[in-house]
Known about the structure:
The complex is a heterodimer of chains A (about 110) and B (about 120). Chain A contains no helices and nine strands. With about 110 residues, chain A is mainly β. In chain A, strand 3 (about 35-40) and strand 4 (about 45-50) form a beta hairpin. The relative contact order of chain A is 0.33. Chain B is mostly beta strands. Helix content of chain B is about 0%, strand content about 55%. Chain B contains no helices and eleven strands. In chain B, about 40% of the residues are buried.
Amino acid sequence: QSVLTQPPSASGTPGQRVTISCSGSSSNIGSNTVNWYQQLPGTAPKLLIYSNNQRPSGVPDRFSGSKSGTSASLAISGLQSEDEADYYCAAWDDSLNAFYVFGTGTKVTVL
Amino acid sequence: QVQLQESGPGLVKPSGTLSLTCAVSGGSISSSNWWSWVRQPPGKGLEWIGEIYHSGSTNYNPSLKSRVTISVDKSKNQFSLKLSSVTAADTAVYYCARAFVLVGYYYYYMDVWGKGTTVTVSS
């Protein structure tokens, strides 16, 4: 049911910059702010970025978010081994039956 | 520090009703937050199920709306999920989460999550 599209995978070596895209529509990303969640293996999701580009307390500044039109992106600068995880974008969708929608998810692998 | 803890049966029979509870500690369920349920089938992505406010107002995922009921018990500081007519496709890890909502739903995010509970639908 996901209406936010992400690449299934991304990878990089330690220290590299990795970017994950999230494509939506006018009823979700185009109308509301975007959030990103990080899910480490076997754990619950964790809020990583909220309101397009804000980091909760404790999230390293190597994580950054941006939004333009109906797309958003998450960048990880200075990739570290502990960043290997699944990443999901999400936004509220204002369509006729409003609901919160998650992206399809991106698995980040540190080579 | 608000913490959430899911509880409920780990095994539900097909056509039965899945029932889970999320206990809220370290804060009040009557705060200005919404309280949500999210699920994740094995090896798949996240799916928002629905949410409730302490007043009893609810919003549900359109794809599940006909089978979902979310309720709140302010006296116990907890909220609950019922999903009826379950099938194997409802097998998943179920998470409860606290949602921050502002300016309609322009700002909406889940900042506190439970650890999740696995529910298997099988006879």
